[in-house]
Design a protein that fits this description.
It contains 14 helices and 21 strands. By secondary structure, it is an alpha+beta fold. Strands 12, 13, 14, 15, 16, 17, 18, 19, 20 and 21 form a ten-stranded antiparallel β-sheet that branches. α4 links the parallel β8 and β9. α9 crosses α10. The radius of gyration is 28 Å and the shape is elongated. It starts with 8 loop residues before the first strand and ends in an 18-residue tail after the last strand. It comes from Pelobates cultripes. This is Ceramide kinase isoform X1. InterPro entries: ATP-NAD_kinase_N, CERK_C, CERK_PH, Diacylglycerol_kinase_cat_dom, Lipid_Phosphate_FormReg, NAD/diacylglycerol_kinase_sf. One of its GO terms (molecular function) is ceramide kinase activity.
Length: about 575
Amino acid sequence: MEPVMVPALRSVLAVSGQSCELSLDSERLAWRELRPRRDRSRRTGVCLTRVLQRARGLTDSLSRQLPSGGHSIPVSEIVSVGEAEIDETYHHSMKWEHMCKPHAFTVNYVQRVKNHRWRCKAVTFWCSDEVLCCHWLKALNDLLDHQTCRPKHLLIYINPYGGKKKGKQIYEKKVAPLFNLAGISTDVIVTEFANHARDDLYEVNLEKYDGIVCVGGDGMFSEVLHGLIGRVQKDKDIDHDNPEANLSPCAIRIGIIPAGSTDCVCFATVGINDPVTSALHIILGDSQPLDVCSVHRKKRFLKYTVSLLGYGFYGDVLKCSEKNRWLGPARYDLAGIKTFLSHHCYEGTVSFQAAKWAAGSPRDLTRCMSGCDICRQSSKQLDEHQKAQTLGSLQNEQEDWKTIKGKFMAVNAANMCCACPRSPKGLSPAAHLADGAADLIVVHKCSRLNFLRHLIRHTNKKDQFDFPFVEVHRVKTFQFTPKHFEDEDGDAESTDLRISGKKNFAQICTDHPSCGCNQVNSIWNCDGETLDQTAIEMRVHSQLVKLFARGVEDSKPKNKCSSRI
């Protein structure tokens, strides 16, 4: 967004009883404490307002003038500005006694604390001149009015049962007060049954809202995602059952207030699972494009996924954990241990098409950060690739498929790094949010010890792909077909594992002499939701939705990307 060119202001006001020089231009608000002088002829509150010839140059000059105790905040990170209530105790103390009626205004703004956590801080500026106070209030509010990316009216869905069942409490105590402070109006719906939000989004008037916010975990986000994408495709008359269809992007943004068990999507796009931080990103109107993968079985749509599509180990973990939901988040630890000890492997065929336009690779150690250059460059190259396809200049597109056959511990497609507090690097550390590609990770059959070594590397800084039994590819689409899949009548993928097990019992015993009752097929873990169909096709849709986020900010400025998508 282009900065608004307004006359810059400078005044001497007071903060916490100390005289400060306050400066404002179209991009930043800055203040610094004035050193005591022998000549006290200038009284606090005297206007030093002036129009500068170069408003844009004021920011740099101010930053050089600010001593170590100075403060400077971007206008884009001011939450709200309002007239402050006068504290009588403060009024009658110290040097304010000589004022007949002091005037003050409060600026609420974003302050960054450690580990990507944001907090809303407030500073109050005092002066004796009412006209001057009103002048500052008007100037600041005019600048905020030009922040057109900020939402004014939001639709909120709250899952009261997700995670530790504190979604409603989190929203009312931590999020709603911030929305009220920022002047955002809301319509709140507390969901009552599974897919309540998804179904409601097919009927609601979306034109009334500037964004949709879900309070809950990854499952709640998935509901909103499916409802919004499905509604947009329905309005555009696009058949989402067709795996080759070019889906229409969603203009309205989605916000996530984390209140679930893992909150993987929030962690990967913000850097922390903190309701206040996420609420502030929504208030500021941040926008982060996000790739979405569609999953089909032949000509039938199954699900959308934005983080993990996992078969084998992660599918078995989810299946086991669903039986112990009463344990809360601890169920994943129990399921993980049990699945690891079971050490199942599954035979099948993986076919994929590489994302040739992708600027990075899964092992280049380049993480997707706020303003990622790889996402921007890949998106540009994807557009050129699609134009070339349309013009017919790309030949033999169908011959680009590569095939992997064998027995697998896990087959995973990561659309983002899939980081979470327990795995800060994630399943694929170099996966990107908006590059139009996913990382396909194939873990071949191996010993328990080697598989444990692979899993442990998700929690440290070592390369989890640096094993002979692990391969990773950046793909635009892939297909998986289990060996024991039969589709004789063209209607049933045999999701009934009992029938499939009976048909192939002899071969199972041959393949697994130590366990004649081993599972024939696993299930797919699709963003934490079970998907029983095993033979599937996944396709990446570039930047299909936008979130109220800006990506994970780099804590090391020298390595931070200079551009935003």
